[in-house]
Amino acid sequence: MTGHEGEGTGYDGTGPDGTGSGRTGPVYALNLFDLADREEYLAYARRSPAAVARHGGRVVALGRLRGVVRGDIAPRQVLILVEWESEAAFRGYLDDPALADLHPHRVGGTAAYVWHLFDRLEDLRPLLKSVAP
């Protein structure tokens, strides 16, 4: 889910293994991007907070790139982290016909978009158990 290649909402519902997560509960949507068109993104930003809230989302962090420490991903100007009540809530936001005119403003206003979903964890033990030594 990087860039805008063939992007409508930009979410295909699959995890890293090509399947849906099948989990319930909160998820985090990590958005990393560069601003490409100020007016287009402002058109998105004016309406998106209320739309996100109506669909069970809550912005928990906004950030502007301070610097690069390390990583395999090219730096992006902006970070937005949204907590969603569930993956279904996230999908509802993306698939809501009343918002069909909203998402193109996000696409047109940004570049180099990275949008990843993460399951909420209380701690790392479940993840560490799944890693073979």
How would you describe this protein?
- The protein is an alpha+beta fold.
- 29% of the residues lie in helices and 26% in strands.
- Strands 2-3-1-4 form a four-stranded antiparallel β-sheet.
- Residues 1-8 have low confidence and may be disordered.
Following the backbone from N to C, one meets helices and strands in this order, namely: EHEEHHEH
Principal-axis shape: globular
Secondary structure: helix percent: 25-40%
What separation lies between the terminal Cα atoms? 30 Å
Structural class: alpha+beta
Uncertain segments of ≥5 residues (pLDDT<50)?
Answer: 1-8
Main β-sheet description: 4 strands, antiparallel
Q: What's the pLDDT, averaged over the residues?
A: 87
Summed up, the helix count is 4
State the total count of DSSP E strands. Answer: 4
User: Taking strands numbered 1, 2, ... along the chain, how are they ordered across the largest sheet?
Assistant: 2-3-1-4
In percent, how much strand structure appears in the residues? 25-35%
User: Whole-number radius of gyration?
Assistant: 15 Å
